[in-house]
Specification:
By secondary structure, the protein is mostly helical. The chain has 14 helices and no strands. About 13% of the residues have low confidence.
Length: 318
């Protein structure tokens, strides 16, 4: 197995664990607060190799590309991904965003970077889209459940405050329309991740400094959200819950995943690395069963759709 494929698989495992752990940590914590903890922790992790072995020189072109990639991922992508995990659960949100990611990245890599896109990869992308589309729909003919992103306090008080009951009714109505509420979040995350993959690969072509590129990219994303917290409307939504310690672990896993991803892109093509990293759904199902247990709903159809996405990504990587 090629080194870039191994690195991409390890990155997928780390990303998947980060998504699942973040769902656990978001109990009672706002998405904006969770984002700051996770991205800040990831930045610390990716900066350690740079401090131990700083680069001798980096081209100005690479600096610009890495910085711009940070605006896509993690500034936009992680915020959208975290909101998607909070609203939909990792077993639904992650397959959608990772299914769309190669669909966007592969044609762009072929057009902009001159990478090959054969028949097998085309079939793989079709399977990825089919699996992601199925997971984006409400199963059971629109029969709604209690939303999985309710906090424990809200779930225990469904018979109490009318505001909570109103929230449940609104979300039930949204589910009955066919699409899951919050579906836009993983879609936005997919576009941001694919854009970042292309920018990172272009930056690494100019200078082979994966750790430095990862540190600069995450640093820019973290800075964007630090600036955003200067606005009162954003600060008001900053709330840490009692399980926020899980978000520190999520940040460490995210930092590890990004380091592995940058090293994989340094060695291989976007058209190989992006689909392999998109094998996250199968790992998310496994980690969800181990960590979340009964906190989010799973059924055989969701597992089947996740398997279709994984098969598609394998075909794309051949």
């Amino acid at each position: 197995m090629d080194p870039e494929v191994v690195l991409a698989l390890l990155s997928a495992a780390s990303f998947a664990a980060s998504h699942v752990v973040s769902k656990r940590g978001l109990q009672g914590t706002s998405v904006t607060a969770g984002l700051m903890v996770i991205v800040g922790g990831a930045w610390i992790v990716v900066s350690i190799p740079v401090l131990l072995d700083p680069p001798e020189s980096v081209s100005s072109r690479s600096l610009v590309l890495f910085a711009v990639s940070g605006l896509s991922a993690p500034a936009v992508s992680r915020a959208a991904a975290l909101a998607g995990v909070h609203a939909l659960g990792p077993s639904i949100s992650v397959p959608i965003q990772q299914g769309l990611r190669p669909l966007i990245a592969l044609p762009a890599a072929a057009l902009l970077l001159g990478e090959a896109l054969g028949v097998l990869r085309g079939v793989g992308v079709a399977l990825i889209v089919a699996g992601g589309w199925f997971l984006s729909r409400q199963p059971g003919g629109g029969t709604a459940d209690v939303p999985i992103d309710l906090t424990l306090e809200e779930a225990e008080g469904l018979a109490g405050p009318s505001s909570v009951r109103t929230r449940v009714r609104h979300r039930t109505a949204a589910l009955s329309s066919g699409f899951r509420p919050g579906i836009v979040y993983p879609v936005v995350a997919a576009f941001a991740y694919a854009t970042s993959d292309l920018l990172v690969k272009s930056g690494l072509d100019s200078t082979s400094e994966p750790a430095f590129g990862a540190s600069l990219s995450i640093g820019v994303g973290f800075l964007v959200w630090c600036v955003a917290h200067a606005f009162p409307s954003v600060r008001r939504r900053f709330r840490l819950g009692r399980d926020a310690g899980w978000l520190v672990l999520s940040g460490a896993l995210m930092g590890t995943a990004i380091l592995l991803l940058f090293n994989a892109l340094d060695r291989g093509d976007v058209s190989v690395v992006a689909p392999v990293v998109s094998t996250q759904p199968l790992l998310v199902f496994l980690f969800s069963a181990l960590i979340l247990r009964h906190r989010e709903r799973r059924d055989p159809s969701m597992l089947l759709a996740g398997g279709v996405v994984v098969i598609g990504t394998i075909l794309v990587s051949l």
